[in-house]
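Hi all, long-time lurker, first post. I run a small reading group and we've been trying to get comfortable going from sequence to structure in the token notation. Rather than ask abstract questions, I figured I'd post a concrete chain and ask someone more experienced to write out its structure so we can walk through it together at our next meeting. Sequence below, copied exactly:
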Amino acid sequence: MKTQSGNPKRAQLIVIATIMALVCAGRASSIAPPYEVATWHGFRPGAVSFTFDDSCSNQFALALPMFNEKGLKVTLFSCTEVMFAGWPQLRRAAAQGHEIGSHTVTHSNFSTLSDAQQLAELTNSLIAINSNVTNQKCVTLAYPFCVEGQDSLVAQYYIGARGCSGQISPKTPGNFMNISSYVCGPEGSIQTLENFTNAANNAAVSSGWCVYLIHGIEQDGGYSPLPSATLQQCVDFFGANQDRFWVQTFGNVVRYVKERNAVVVTDFSTSSNAFVLSVTDNLDDAVYNFPVTLRRPLPADWSGAVVSQNGAPVKSTIARENSTNYIIFDVVPNDWGVTITKAAAPAPGARP
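-- Answer (accepted) --
Happy to help. Here is the structure in token form:
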């Protein structure tokens, strides 16, 4: 990293020391003015996750092509012994950017299991998924029959777990080990495009998170089968409204919430042409590596700016609000220093 003033090597050492001190101190989120962290990625009003259980055949044959066409990512919660799909299909989905989560080994009702039996379901499914799908880590769980397990056991292995109490989760769920979702199809409350959009709009109005739970599609043997035409309408709607709804995997939304709530943004140095800041948190970087969205107002004499992190360019955009230009950018906490540098104004609508 090279700053606009002072000794670059000394500056880097100071940044490293600052990062380590904050991490060790375990501080909660602290955002130095005038920076702001987005409640949801890209400063969108609400978050939406599509989750699919049981690896029903049409999830792969029909649903994933719909989402892939729009560039939207979903979560597939799969049992590792009682599954309709095989590992090649799950590996292919993971390579396309979709999340593979655990739905336990045998799809057993946790209320009927001892702690030791729950532990076996939790650990053995995790080991099987990580052994067979090697381009991502399994970090989330969906409870079979929506019956919550022992929170203290689940939290040892997963960063979030999904239930289905049928409500919008707040911007920070009250219990990450039992995050709400809506059951879709004839057995649930979400059956039509209007049902899907109403729930998502409620999430956007409340700055919340809407999670959909889908099993079968058409007549593929899955529970509460959703018509493919309804799902296509839904995917088309969210594909066309990505500026309003952040559609992302269940695991990445959990990552974002925890990073957002732990991030520490500190101004390191300023000059007439650049700002250097550190963006850190006290979370495990091997798991929590999703970029958070920040913004800051630009000085009146800056017509544009570019952002870099650890020497690499970062995608950013300029937005105008109340006669002030803001630079909006996404950075991964703990990945070294971030520099905002004065630049010529980008073309209208451009994202450097």
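A couple of things your group might point at:
Confidence is low (pLDDT under 50) at residues 1-26.
The longest strand covers residues 46-53.
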